[in-house]
């Protein structure tokens, strides 16, 4: 039956229907539904994500025009009113649970391959997605601006999104730090917006490690000097303790401080960590890897639909973002299982015009007629 496999059907092949239906049952997604099941809603929204549909009306029109081709992907044309109603009423947590199911599959595929250090590397960050406050009045961020915030834990070794949280823009990223740093034996790298000494000490108590930048107003005293140099990238390596009462009560243990000099920009960076085993240069390299999460945010915003939305309610917006994250995981899984070497950016660009053709994703890049798509090297996200 391979000849009947479409590009969309191939993309959806790694969705586990039984796992998805568990979430549907838990949150009563199909209760009272007559025309569009929650599973078909997911497939329809994935179609909208891949084709970069600007609106619900565009999804409706595109599916109507291609109605004869939808059958082999298990889809049917959907009315705009039905889709709008589903976005308003189906619980977004159903799609969150499917994201978590795909994370479990990705984790199994990744295993321990590609690990750069003895401990698994986790990159923590958040990205703000701005909204018009007049249309999204539930998402108040500032006086005249609305926003939602995507909090993310990225696997730093194989670079797939391992955990995500969605909040309104007013929630500071440090408030989600504890929920994203639950693993023991991991190395967490994050920017200095996450410097909360009590939460950092919780990481220490879980027998995990953190690497972040020191805040400029940190009050500390030097306990031990490990190395010092006026030349080379590592200018200082030492052990400090927080001196203020509040800081000492929050983090009573020793902290390692590494001063790194960037020759290219002639600038010093000061890192703090609770890892005393790795070389100072490795601590700097760990922090450099944090840039990959920034590239992931840029990639997903440029290639999937999470900047303009198909609905205005909180539920509709959250569903759309969860589906975008699901698509990113499906692409990661396909790349790793099928051994596809081209970037996910190129894959998704090729899929936009071939999504309903009777081919597999691997076929798109294994034939002489592969789409010739030039992709800018500006976003070199290594995982995709």
Query: What does the overall shape look like?
Result: elongated
Largest sheet: 9 strands, mixed
- Helical region count? 15
Q: Tell me the Rg in angstroms.
A: 23 Å
Strand order of the largest sheet: 3-2-1-4-5-9-8-7-6
Low-confidence stretches: 373-379
Q: What pattern of helices and strands is seen along the backbone? A: HHHHHHHEEEHEHEEEHEEHHHHH
Structural class: alpha+beta
Strand content: 15-25%
Termini separation comes to 29 Å
Fraction of residues in helices? 25-40%
Mean pLDDT over all positions: 91
Total strands: the figure is 9
General description of the model:
Helix 2 runs antiparallel to helix 7 (93-110) and helix 3 (38-50) crosses helix 13. This protein has helices at residues 7-12, 17-26, 38-50, 56-65, 67-70, 80-89, 93-110, 177-180, 197-205, 245-250, 280-288, 291-303, 314-338, 344-354, 361-364, and strands spanning 121-131, 146-155, 161-168, 187-189, 209-213, 220-228, 234-242, 255-262, 267-273. A nine-stranded mixed β-sheet has the order 3-2-1-4-5-9-8-7-6, with helices on both faces. It has 15 helices and nine strands. The chain is of the alpha+beta class. Among the domains are: 2-95 and 310-364, no CATH class; 202-276, N-terminal domain of TfIIb, CATH 2.20.25. It is elongated.
């Amino acid at each position: 039956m391979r000849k009947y496999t479409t590009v969309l059907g191939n993309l959806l092949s790694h969705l586990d229907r039984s796992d998805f239906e568990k979430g549907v049952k838990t949150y009563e997604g199909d209760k009272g539904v007559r025309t569009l099941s929650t599973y078909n809603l997911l497939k329809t929204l994935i179609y909208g994500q891949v084709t970069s549909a600007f609106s619900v009306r565009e999804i409706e029109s595109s599916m109507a025009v291609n109605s004869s081709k939808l059958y082999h992907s298990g889809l049917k044309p959907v009315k705009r009113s039905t889709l709008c109603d589903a976005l308003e009423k189906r619980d977004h947590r159903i799609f969150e649970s499917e994201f978590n199911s795909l994370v479990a599959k990705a984790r199994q595929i990744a295993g321990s391959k590609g690990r750069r250090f003895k401990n698994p590397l986790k990159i923590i960050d958040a990205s703000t997605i701005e909204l018009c406050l007049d249309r999204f009045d539930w998402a108040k961020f500032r006086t005249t601006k609305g926003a939602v915030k995507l909090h993310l834990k990225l696997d730093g070794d194989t670079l797939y999104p391992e955990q995500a949280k969605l909040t309104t823009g007013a929630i500071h990223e440090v408030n989600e730090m504890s929920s994203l740093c639950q693993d023991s034996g991991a190395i967490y790298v994050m920017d200095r917006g996450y410097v909360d000494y009590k939460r950092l000490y919780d990481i220490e108590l879980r027998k995990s490690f953190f690497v972040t930048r020191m805040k400029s107003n940190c009050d500390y005293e030097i306990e031990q000097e490990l190395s010092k140099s006026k030349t080379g990238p590592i200018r200082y390596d030492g052990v400090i303790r927080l001196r203020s009462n509040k800081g000492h009560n929050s983090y009573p243990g020793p902290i390692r401080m590494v001063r790194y000099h960037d020759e290219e920009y002639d600038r010093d960076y000061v890192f703090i960590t609770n890892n005393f085993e790795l070389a100072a240069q490795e601590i700097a390299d760990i922090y450099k890897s944090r840039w990959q999460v920034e590239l992931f945010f840029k990639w997903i915003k440029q290639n999937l639909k999470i900047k303009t939305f198909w609905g205005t309610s909180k539920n509709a917006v959250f569903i759309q973002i969860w589906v975008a994250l699901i698509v990113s995981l499906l692409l990661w899984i396909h790349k790793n299982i099928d051994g596809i070497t081209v970037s996910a950016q190129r894959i998704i660009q090729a899929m936009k015009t071939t999504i309903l053709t009777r081919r597999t994703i691997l076929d798109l890049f294994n034939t002489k007629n592969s789409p010739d798509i030039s992709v800018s090297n500006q976003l070199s996200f290594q995982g995709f």
